[in-house]
UniProtKB/TrEMBL annotation:
Organism expressing this protein natively: Thalassolituus oleivorans MIL-1
Highest rank taxon of the organism: Bacteria
Keywords: DNA-binding, Transcription, Transcription regulation
Name of the protein described by the UniProt record: HTH cro/C1-type domain-containing protein
GO MF term list: DNA binding
Gene3D superfamilies: lambda repressor-like DNA-binding domains
The UniProt record lists the keyword Transcription: yes
InterPro entries: Cro/C1-type_HTH, HTH-type_reg/antitoxin, Lambda_DNA-bd_dom_sf, NadS-like
NCBIfam families: NadS
Entry-linked SMART domains: HTH_XRE
Classification via Pfam families: HTH_3
CDD domains in UniProt: HTH_XRE
Amino acid sequence: MKDELFADLLASTREMIEIENGERTPNPEHMHSYNVVDVKAIREAAGKTRDELAKIIGTSTETIKSWETKRRNPTGPTQKLLRLIQTNPSGMIAILEEDNKVASRQA
């Protein structure tokens, strides 16, 4: 390994340790944050079990569990759907349940 590359790597490691120890603040342009939906809070506000919510939004109970335990995060259209449910739990759940009933009758 070239000395210059090693020196950069060592400096980065020291910076990381200082940030972890609260001795240094990271540069804002290097910080990333993610706005993750709280699936458990959404589900509880809707008054649904994991099984019920999974059926309503068309996913598995295991996926709901993964989102609630933060092993995985909903993305794309599912995240948008959950945000809609979050804004109006009872109204959105009623719409989705009615849509599922219509789809079942058509099948």
